[in-house]
Amino acid sequence: LCVLGAPRGGSGALPPEKPFNISCWSRNMKDLTCRWTPGAHGETFLHTNYSLKYKLRWYGQDNTCEEYHTVGPHSCHIPKDLALFTPYEIWVEATNRLGSARSDVLTLDVLDVVTTDPPPDVHVSRVGG
């Protein structure tokens, strides 16, 4: 779980707001890294746990990402065991002692979010005037 926030007494404490702006990418078609933005007002003045969940769209069971903070405070990496040619549903759940909130579901196919490394040893030269 990704735990953010610090307790600050009882006044001003809020339940979490819905996380948003989930984006994901894959480096090798076998993994997936996702990041998100916490609720619009951010700090709830309570410890807030963020869980990235994912499942195969039509028949999968819910899974929870386990490698948090891989590319920043609101991120998680799924290192292996992903299916190709099948859409995944991905969402983030935010929970603190006053309640919980769930993001909208992002649907994606791993093959649609692959980012490849640039070609090695590329040189640029000026041609003409």
Automatic annotation (TrEMBL):
SUPFAM superfamilies: Fibronectin type III
One Pfam entry name: EpoR_lig-bind
Domain Fibronectin type-III, chain residue ranges per copy: 18-119
Listed InterPro entries: FN3_dom, FN3_sf, Growth/epo_recpt_lig-bind, Ig-like_fold
Keyword entries, A-Z: Disulfide bond, Glycoprotein, Immunoglobulin domain, Phosphoprotein, Receptor, Repeat, Signal
Coiled-coil residue windows: none
Positions of transmembrane segments: none
This protein's name: Cytokine receptor-like factor 1
Organism: Jaculus jaculus
